[in-house]
Amino acid sequence: xxxxxxxxxxxxxxxxxxxxxxxxxxxxxxxxxxxxxxxxxxxxxxxxxxxxxxxxxxxxxxxxxxxxxxxxxxxxxxxxxxxxxxxxxxxxxxxxxxxxxxxxxxxxxxxxxxxxxxxxxxxxxxxxxxxxxxxxxxxxxxxxxxxxxxxxxxxxxxxxxxxxxxxxxxxxxxxxxxxxxxxxxxx
Length: 187
Prior knowledge:
six-stranded mixed beta sheet, Nuclease_put_TT1808, Uma2, three-stranded antiparallel beta sheet, alpha+beta, 187 residues, Restrct_endonuc-II-like, tt1808, chain A
């Protein structure tokens, strides 16, 4: 179950709350702080593998787990935020700035059993409205990937359906291949 604080606050007030970086992460949507559900094992397996696959198949982008992205009056924490290297701000010593204040290029969410799909879709649509170029919502119970792209109808991919990725990410995946990562051979 996700926790939420129903007191209406500003995004600036939200970002000053002492507990928002606790695990699981807190997000800020429509004036309310909402805690994401704790990831389960299948979620973690998919997240780990997707991070590895995106990173190993692109020089232009990096895949980051649970990165807070604060922009356009909302603060979201996608399971995976894929960001072009040239969009990552660095400080005077060449290290990345701690606060990412834009939409990721590609937002990937993995639906947890206790998570509301519409809340996740709302965050993905918000990202797309503000510059994100691709959104995925993986549903491990349905073995499907719901894909969002600007100015296109959402597309549900199952089985051998090829999954859309960002240009510059040299990765060919089907929904079937992604969910096959959940099969564990214990030999």
